[in-house]
Amino acid sequence: DYARALAEAKRTKRPIFVDAWATWCHSCQSMRAYVLTDPSLAPVADQFVWLTIDTEKDENARFVARFTNRVWPTLWIIDGEHEEPALRWEGTATAPELLTLLATVRDGARPGAIVTFLRANQAAARGESAEAERGYREVLGVKDFPERARAAEALVGLLSADEDHAGCSALAIAEQAA
Questions:
Q1: What is the mean pLDDT of residues 145-171?
Q2: Phi then psi for 126, rounded to 5 degrees?
Q3: Which of 53-62, 80-89, 100-109, 167-176: highest mean pLDDT?
Q4: What's the burial of 69, exposed, middle or buried (CB within 10 Å: 0-12/13-18/19+)?
Q5: What sign has the CA pseudo-torsion 22, 24, 27, 30?
Q6: 1 alpha carbon, distance to own chain's centre
Q7: Can you say whether the dihedral through the CA atoms of 9, 42, 136, 151 is positive or negative?
Q8: What is the end-to-end Cα distance of the chain in Å, rounded?
Q9: Are strands 16-21 and 49-54 parallel, antiparallel or unpaired?
Q10: Nearest 10 degrees: Cα torsion 165, 170, 176, 178
Q11: Cα separation, 105 vs 77, whole angstroms
C-alpha cells in the first residue's frame, strides 16, 4: 500500500516507482506481465521502492487523489522524502525505456529531455515522422544529453527514410562538431 511504500522510501532514502493501473486496461496488463517482470530490471530493483496501485480500489483513494491518472497506465517516480513526483510517464514503456526513465531519476539527469526523447521514439514507432523529428531535434539541443548518440542515430534514420540526404549530411556535420 502507498502509506507503507512511503514509509519505506523515507526510511531507506529511495524513490518510489509506482505503476498506477486498472484491471480493465489491456496495456496495463501487458506492462505487468511482460515489462515489470523483465529480468533486465533486476539490477535496479533495490534502487527503488516498487509499488503497484490499482486505481479502481477504494483503499488507493489517497494516492489517486494526490497523483491523478489521465491515461492508464501511468508510471510515477515519487521522491519519498518530500512526497513529490519526480517523473510521470503516461502510457506504456518497454523494459529498455523503463530503465532509461529510472536512470534519469537515479542519476539526476534532466527528466524532461528523456521524456521528450522517449516520446519521439513512440512517435517514430507510430509512423509520425514530423513529431518524432521535432522531439529528436529538441533533445539534441540539450547540452550533455545522455542519450545523444541514440537520438542522433534515430534522427538520421528518419531523414534517410525520407531521402533527405542533405539533412543527413548536415546532421552528421553538426554532431561531429558537438
A1: 90
A2: -85, -5
A3: 53-62
A4: middle
A5: positive
A6: 23
A7: positive
A8: 47
A9: parallel
A10: -140
A11: 8
Q: Which residue has the higher pLDDT, 153 or 16?
A: 16
Angle at 139 between CA 135 and CA 141, to 5 degrees: 120
Non-local CB neighbours of 7 within 8 Å, separated by 6+ positions: none
DSSP assignment of the chain, as one string?
-HHHHHHHHHHHT-PEEEEEE-TT-HHHHHIIIIITT-GGGGGGGGGSEEEEEETTSGGGHHHHHHS--SSSSEEEEEETTTTEEEEEEES---HHHHHHHHHHHHHT--HHHHHHHHHHHHHHHTT-HHHHHHHHHHHHTSTT-TTHHHHHHHHHHHHHHTT-HHHHHHHHHHHHH-
Residue with cell 497506465: 73
State how far the alpha carbon of 6 is from the alpha carbons of 47, 77, 80, 156, in Å: 14, 12, 6, 43
* The 3-state secondary structure of 60-91, one letter per residue: HHHHHHHCCCCCCCEEEEEECCCCEEEEEEEC
Amino acid identity for residue 17 in this structure: F
| C-alpha to C-alpha distance for 63 and 80, rounded to whole angstroms | 13
